[in-house]
Amino acid sequence: MIVTKELTKVYHLGGTKVYGANEIDLRIESGEFVSVMGPSGSGKSTLLYLMGGLDRPTSGKIWIDGVDIENLCYAKLCDLRKDKIGFIFQSFNLIPTLNALENIFVPLAPSGIRNGQKAYAKKLLELVDLEDRMYHTPNQLSGGQQQRVAIARAFINKPKIILADEPTGNLDSTSGKEVMQLMRDMNEEKGVTIVIVTHDPNIGKEADRTIHLEDGIIVKEVSDRKLISQHSSPISHKIKS
Q1: Residue range 1-22, pLDDT digits in tens
Q2: What is the pLDDT of residues 137-158, one digit of tens each?
Q3: What is the CATH number of the domain that holds 159?
Q4: Bridge partner residues of 88 (DSSP)
Q5: CA distances from 214 to 8, 36, 226, 235 (A)
Q6: pTM (2 decimals)?
Q7: Burial status of residue 125 (CB atoms within 10 A of its CB: 0-12, 13-18, 19 or more)
Q8: Number of independent structural domains in the chain
Q9: Could you tell me which residues come within 8 angstroms of residue 186 by beta carbon, excluding any fewer than 6 positions away?
């Protein structure tokens, strides 16, 4: 579902090159539930945004469901994101003047709301246990409820992939567990491929496979609690000038 080849993203800070991603080779299969972990500044969010086409790599390749996105124009890249990818952000990114139901419709704006999508949006709100809050605006919802609206919004286009950036970072432990269970249910029942960035080991271990990053490099991968690959230390790649 997602393949990267020598994926690299370089940021220029003054006269120094900092690698958010450093020649990452990665393959995520359809239906996998993958967590990406690492310390602050390790490149977790950079990798997620590159995989979602929200940022462009400095070099390297990315394939999404068999499509090489490197040379897609902006319009076609937007279409690919709309059709195949749902995003969940730590900060929710809900529009404060819209109610929960209207916020779920936001990804449909470019193409319009089609027959059956209103009913599906309401079904999603039922799934996240917010059917009695669909006409509430974000400031009338708790943090956990807002994140559940964001999850429902991510699924409105029935994407094949969900990319979640610290989706439990602003939630209490109970709400965080509920959010993770919702994503696990979508993964198991709908076969949606899920990639979640997190710094919380308790959240990370919920995934089937965990990718550990340091300084933009994959240093190890763990599957079903067992080490499946261990890479060399990234010390030599940390910062290049």
Answers
A1: 999 999 999 998 887 888 899 9
A2: 999 998 889 988 998 899 888 8
A3: 3.40.50.300
A4: 164
A5: 14, 11, 19, 9
A6: 0.86
A7: buried
A8: 1
A9: 155, 162, 192, 194
